[in-house]
Each structure stands twice: as C-alpha cells, then as structure tokens.
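To: structure subgroup
Subject: Chain for Friday's discussion

All,

I'm putting the inputs and outputs inline so they're searchable in the archive.
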Amino acid sequence: MGRASIDVAVRFKPVGGTVDRAAGIAIRLSDPNNYYVVRANALEDNVVLYKTVNGVRSPLDIVGRKGGYGVNVPVPAGRWHTLRVEFAGTRFSAIYDGKALFAVEDATFMEAGNIGLWAKADSVTVFDDLRYGETR
C-alpha cells in the first residue's frame, strides 16, 4: 500500500502591505528557522514554494524546469483565494484557487513536523478555513 499524502489548505485575502502582501502555509515546520512554505504574493503576482534552513531561504526547482522562482499568476488583493499544498515523501504540489500550478522535489526535511500560517514583512492578510488531512 502506498504512503498517504498530506493535504493542507487555507482561504486567504491579502488586504494590505507595501513591502509584501503575502499569505502562506508552512509545512514540516520543526522550528521558526526550518520549514517549507508555499506562498502567494499579491504584490509580486506569483506563487512559490521554497525552504528555509537555519533561517536562510532557498528556492526549489520546479519539477521539469531548472531555475526560476515559482510561477507568475495573478493574486488580486482584496479578494478571497485558496492556497493548498499536497505532499508525500520528497514531492510537494502547489495548488492555487483550485488549479495545480507546479511540483517540487526536495529531501531536506523528511520528518513530520508542524504546519502553520505564514505572512511576511508588513503583509496584512486575513486567513480562514484552515484544513489539514491525509489523502490516499
């Protein structure tokens, strides 16, 4: 029988921020300096998935593409959106507003950890309807 994958989703509305207007989900969070995060940014109009190791953020290559930084997609401020990440083992898939955007592979953090909501800098973001569970 295959390994179950984990699915974490949240609704969010970017409301304000001049430096950043971001919303994210932290996964496999072991402490504030070590985790993966999938995040959407209304100022940059993109969704990215990266890792933070010992407080240092590093981009993750999208499966099938070297380099780059996530994908460009409109993230209009003042509207509700859904951000979701599915993961099992070393594979992570980013889903935004119901559309699968990309996948990454990384084995830095293999142990189970916590999940959390994530925002950055001066982001003012409203979160609602956090969901977490296993899928088969």
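Points worth raising on Friday:
The chain is about 0% helix and 60% strand.
The chain has a mean pLDDT of 94.

D.
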